[in-house]
Each structure stands twice: as C-alpha cells, then as structure tokens.
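Journal club prep — side note

Before the paper discussion, L.F. wants everyone to see what a predicted structure for a comparable chain looks like in token form. Sequence:
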Amino acid sequence: MNHQLSHAYAVCRGIARRAAKNFYYGFMVLPSEKRNALSAVYAFMRHADDISDEPGDKEQKRQKLTEWLESAKAVFAGKATDDPVLMALGDAQSKFKIPPDLFEKLVYGTSLDLEIPPASGDAPAILCSTFADLKQYCYYVASVVGLVCIRIFGYEDSKAEFLAEDCGLAFQLTNIIRDIKEDASMGRIYIPEEDLARNNLSAANFSAAALADRGQVQQLRPALEYEAERARKYYESAKWLMELIEEDSRAALWVLVEIYSRLLKKISERNYDVLTERVRLTFWEKMRVLSRGFLLRIA
C-alpha cells in the first residue's frame, strides 16, 4: 500500500473511531485489510449523514448528497481523487467488489429524513403507517449497511444477503426504541401507526408535554415491547449468518450483535423506560464484549 493510500485509510479509521460509537468495536477484531475497508465505508456514510443533518435548505442538502455520490462513482470508475475518504473507499470497493448501487442506496437512505412532513401542532409526525413501510425505511438506512458489510466479511452462499438484511433491521429497531424521545423532539416517530393504534396510542402521546409526564412510560411500554419482540426475532438471523461469512470475520459480527442485543436487553430490564435517560452500554460493558471478541478471533 502506498503512503497516500495508507494515510487515506488512517483518516477513515480516525473518523470511525471518533463517531462509530458501537460499530467501531466490531471493526477492531477484524484483520487490518477488512478493518480499513469498513472504516472507509463508515467515513463515506458519516459524511453523507452529516450533510443530511446540517441546518439549511433541503434542496441544497439533496444537491450536496448527489455531488458526494457522483464523486464516489467517478472514483469507482477510475478517476483520481485527493479526498482521503473517497480514495480509501475506491480502493475498498475495488478490493472487495462491493456493487456501486449499494452506495447509491446508502446515500438515498441518508436523504429519507429530508422527506419528513411537518409535524401537526405540538405532536411529531408518524412516518410509517405499517410495519411494511418501516421495513422499507430500515432497508435503506440499515439493511443496506449489512449488505455492504458482508461483502467485506466475505461469503459465498446468497442466503447471507437475506440474513444480513435481517441483522440491519434488528439493529435499527433497537435504535428506534432507544431513541424514541430524541426522535420525537425532532418531530418524527418511526413506530408504525398500526402498532400505535393497537396499543391505543397516537402522535399526541409523543408531544413534549406528554413525554415529560412520568406516567407516559407506562403508556408507551406495550408498543415498545412489541417492537422489541420483533427485533429479537430478527437477531436470530445473526446465528445463521455467522456460519456463512468467512471465519476471520465472525468475531466482528459477534461483537456487533452482542453489543446491540445487550442494549435491547438493558432497555427491557428497565421496563422500557427510555424517557428518563438515554439507555446505553458503559465503556466497560463494551470492553468486556470486545475482549471476548478477541478471544473468539484467536480461538
């Protein structure tokens, strides 16, 4: 690897280390070549996310996302670049034969929140009518990430693709449950309307005033528990996926699944109280998972 490319990957690893609070623990138990590739993918996604999240005109943000994607596609086609993220990404895409259309889907996923309709009054907008709607959203923001990851992990059996999509869905459902208060404050609710109605809930239950009421935890618990049970079923796919990816990548997948499933378990142990404080694993809890991951890697 030449010095310039080595520096580009170092930049991407730095971005991943600073920003990928859960994912980076999985990166750490991969062989260096695969760790570099995943860091490049993450850095590319991080920049797209930052564009979507920055304040400003939605059309301008869409234009910036289009330009970021087009720059990546030009690098995939062989154009030279001085951008360290795109340089590393181009090398990773070529080395691991990642289909370029997956990057188009990743960027499209980051743009979905730009389509959120304005909230009605004080209540946030419910973005999905059905679980099928939510699943489609999760496909672009999470399952596609799984499809990119398994290209780097390595696999031969095409069933790995369906299982990777399920893993991404499990992770995203966990995030949705954990972040319900934060998302509501930004005017969005991802739990499907049909699931809320099943539990006699509506957008009004997620207004700032409602979420400030301690009794609201009891109201929301059945709906959150319902989504958590869905997530647990999708986590089951990880056990099968583990057998289909290359042996030197299995510890990384185990670490990722263990961190996210432990997060869901912690939410459950708190009786789905995600309103009082943000539920997270401590640094030492993550380090224990990482230590076991390293042991699995060398076993």
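L.F.'s comment for the group: The longest helix spans residues 216-244. Keep this in mind when we get to the figures.
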